[in-house]
């Protein structure tokens, strides 16, 4: 039987595009990832650059694959989107993140927030508002502790319905951030219609902030725009002290990146909080 299995495998490998086959295997594994307890949220601390205090965390999904090891979300989130698995995964992510922030806030008597990434399918083809409402109720988390990160390109897909969904989320009291700001095709004129709290400057602009004049210009324009529109700015991917100083000096409120901390598994992040908050 083992040989037959191997032959079947070879047959498929020969007859199908290798990449497609790879994807099918991965997709099949992904179907079981949630029930087999292979998904895990890591948390990356977000720093208030002006006061140097931790203000919250971004939840980042990890898949511990039994044979492949840690699979990048860049690989499996698109797959989860295509297959619709993102809906059940997304609800699990929201619930886990809310429970976790409650635990940390209870331990330290803080009001830290947690930012959760929302993908296009979750946002457009499914009642996200209802799900968020349900999860907040079940976990007893104050709505303002939850921030949803929504990419610019996702919003541009259907602007009118995006605005409606955002309005409903805003009414619940959750905070909304535009992720990967500047990388999409958004028209700035829409920005004022979006009920958002903050913009996230993409890592690609932070990387060469000190050497590339156009990246610096984009970062600075984002900061100027946000300031005029009363929005907060979060810079992501800060790896060097010089990048942090640059952003801090230009009034960027929040930042995250390896310089401050890598995304951490719960146990390590709990340790990070204890060192930071109980001194
Ligand atoms: P993103 O939302 O733009 O997340 C930022 C990415 O940059 C994360 O990669 C993070 O680990 C990484 N990062 C943060 N600071 C630094 C730094 O200083 N240096 C470097 N080199 N990288 C840094 P990650 O965790 O691999 O996630 C990649 C993307 O996958 C995310 O991009 C997001 O679009 C998506 N993703 C991750 N978790 C989730 C999730 O729970 N739901 C959804 N829908 N998407 C997710
Ligand atoms: Ca994000
Ligand atoms: Ca990004
Ligand atoms: Ca560049």
Automatic annotation (TrEMBL):
The chain holds residues 803 to 1081 of 1092 of the full protein. Residues 23-277 form the EAL domain. One of its GO terms (biological process) is signal transduction. GO terms for cellular component: membrane. Coiled coil: none annotated. This is Diguanylate cyclase/phosphodiesterase with PAS/PAC sensor(S). It comes from Desulfuromonas acetoxidans (strain DSM 684 / 11070). The keyword Membrane applies. Keywords: Membrane, Transmembrane, Transmembrane helix.
């Amino acid at each position: 039987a083992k040989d037959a299995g191997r032959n079947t495998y070879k047959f498929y490998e020969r007859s199908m595009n290798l990449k497609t086959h790879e994807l099918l295997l991965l997709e099949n594994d992904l179907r079981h990832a949630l029930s087999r307890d292979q998904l895990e949220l890591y948390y990356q601390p977000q720093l208030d650059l002006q006061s140097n205090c931790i203000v919250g965390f971004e939840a980042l999904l990890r898949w511990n694959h039994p044979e492949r090891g840690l699979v990048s979300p860049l690989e499996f989130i698109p797959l989860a989107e295509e297959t619709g698995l993102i809906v059940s995964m997304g609800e699990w992510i929201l619930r886990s993140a809310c429970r976790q922030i409650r635990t940390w806030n209870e331990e330290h008597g803080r009001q830290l927030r947690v930012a959760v990434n929302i993908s296009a399918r979750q946002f457009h083809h499914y009642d996200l508002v209802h799900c968020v409402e349900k999860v907040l109720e079940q976990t007893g988390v104050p709505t303002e502790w939850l921030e949803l990160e929504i990419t610019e390109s996702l919003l541009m897909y259907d602007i009118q319905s995006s605005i409606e969904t955002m309005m409903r989320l805003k009414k619940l009291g959750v905070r909304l951030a535009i992720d990967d700001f500047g990388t999409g095709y958004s028209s700035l004129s829409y920005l004022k219609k979006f009920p958002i709290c903050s913009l996230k400057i993409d890592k690609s602009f932070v990387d060469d902030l000190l050497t590339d004049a156009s990246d610096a210009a984009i970062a600075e324009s984002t900061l100027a725009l946000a300031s005029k529109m009363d929005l907060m700015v979060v810079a992501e991917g800060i790896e060097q002290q010089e990048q942090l100083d640059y952003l801090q000096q230009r009034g960027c409120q929040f930042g995250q990146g390896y310089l401050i901390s890598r995304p951490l598994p719960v146990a390590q992040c709990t340790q990070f909080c204890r060192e930071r908050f109980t001194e």
